[in-house]
Amino acid sequence: xxxxxxxxxxTRRDFLKHAGFAAVAGLAGWTExxxxxxxxxxxxxxxxTVVLVRDQAALRPDGTMDAAVISGMxxxxxxxxxxxxxxxxxxxxLFRSSDVVGVKFSRxxxxxxxxxxxxxxxxxxxxxxxxxxxxxxxxxxxGLPAKDCTALVNVSSLKAHPLAGMAAAIxxxxxxxxxxxxxxxxxxxxLPEVWLRPEVKGKTRLVVLDLITPYFGTGPQIDPRYRAxxxxxxxxxxxxxxxxxxxxxxxxxxxxYKGKAWPINPPPFFLAEAxxxxxxxxxxxxxxxxxxxxxxKGVLV
Amino acid sequence: MHGIQIITLAxxxxxxxxxxxxxxxxxxxESIGGWRSAERTSYDRSNLFQFIDxxxxxxxAYGFSQAQVVHYRRDGAPDIVAEAYDMGSPQDAYxxxxxxxxxxxxxxxxxxxxxxGLVRFCKGRWFVRVMAMEETKxxxxxxxxxxxxxxxxxxxESPRPAILKxxxxxxxxxxxATFFHTRITLNQLYYVADENVLRLGPETDAAIADYRTPxxxxxxxLIHYPDAKRCQDATSAFLAKYLRQKRTQPALPDEVIVRxxxxxxxxxxxxxxxxxxxxxxxxxxxxxxxxxxxxxxRIPGGKADGPSR
Lengths: 301, 309
Known about the structure:
The complex is a heterodimer of chains A (301) and B (309).
Chain A: H1 12-17, H2 25-28, H3 31-34, E1 48-54, H4 67-82, H5 87-94, E2 101-105, H6 117-128, E3 137-140, E4 151-161, E5 165-167, H7 169-172, E6 204-215, E7 232-236, H8 239-258, H9 270-276, E8 288-294
Parallel strand pairs in A: 1-8, 2-3, 2-4, 4-6
Antiparallel strand pairs in A: 1-7, 4-5, 6-7
Chain B: H1 3-26, E1 31-32, E2 35-44, H2 56-60, E3 66-73, E4 80-86, H3 90-98, E5 104-105, E6 111-115, E7 118-123, E8 126-132, H4 137-152, E9 178-180, H5 183-189, E10 205-213, E11 216-224, H6 228-241, E12 256-261, E13 265-270, E14 275-282, H7 285-298
Antiparallel strand pairs in B: 1-2, 2-3, 3-4, 4-8, 5-6, 6-7, 7-8, 9-10, 10-11, 11-14, 12-13, 13-14
């Protein structure tokens, strides 16, 4: 994006003028911004599909997660995404037995918004059904041997982030770079660049967003008031489309909590950049097909 | 300097450090309501990111110097984590708290908020968070009791940042004012620009607050610079890079500048002496001018009206 190399850098007015947030306009109702400027999207995919699966039983009455229910949500999501008759066939549509798969999740200890182990286990269960041997599945946050992997599954949580605006699938790969802090410069617009690292580029076959209890509040540390009881997961092959839906949800959760607009700050510029500059997928709501399945109460997107 | 003097100085410095370190530990009781302290870890400016990866900058944007984290455990009950941050001054301790002043007001320390198992408070130069991993009646009681014990261990006074008193009271939305120094905090609250166009830094005291106006809400940012020259530099940079004006000489001390921007909003500024007042998100030029006039009245030596451009 040309603005990043300008002396002046980005300002709020650039964000408004170029509709950097138009990615969420159609989903989050920011029509005012969408109408304000040219469409900032470059992706040419005919349509990206994001499958949202929710199940009220994902959380038990005591607030603990039901692993079997959540695994079922993961299988249902992958099956719906791939239009297959069985979960096993769905996973085989995306992976081969010969694959070495890295399951990249987010530990995020300080915020206490990690990818739920139940979601990670659901993904691993699906990979094993291909079948892929346990020895060919590497699940980790840091230290994942991406170079040795033939495929990656991005399994991330969703949280508002004090520096990036939002952290979900795209930001989940930040620690593939040994110097992740550099992506927080320049309004985080270069964050998608990490996806172009040789050991990472082109390997991501599946994105699974953990939306069981997403975090929509202020940082830097968790405030339990801003932890949503959403009981969902989202599944996609397009990380940008998945993040666009995540952003829409995060914004809606914030607005819903306050009863008025509570914009995400700083704006997650990286999302439009992931589409326009890095061509990782589409953030254009007109090119995103959101398929909803299951529990509808408070779905918001 | 003679060797013995250097050694003496080193001993004095190490004693001073030891006193400070022990002061941090002294805030935490051994037990509270059946919970007993377990792991203790400490952090300073060089390694806070190990505790708050990706979020340490929020504390470093204030005068943070060190933090102590203590886990409390009790069989059959959720853990409680207590964190004490030495923010360097009472003003900065309040600043961190003021990033989010929503929640239930509770009488702990100088100012405190509680919600869903987390109490946050400031007292003296300390900002403290005490959080239960799960909120129950018992953990709520323990969290609040632990917070009070820690607050009682702090004897320091808690003067508020002086700049907050300069915010106009008319229309000010309660608990919306945040005290800050740098653009990291400003952009977290209200994104203005990637570049430091307002020339903010550790030595600038600033506040941002929401105002209810006859035409919806607006934001007022008030910044106090170390001197008038830096204020003029910030004004010029803002005019050039945010308002994109070709004429970028500093605003006159009694001048008011109002411009319409995207989305039908108005931005305005006034820069009397070493203060810069900015209005964002106003729905009319009149609202912008009125808010700036109110701000100018409260700035030392300021007056409400001045030439407009």
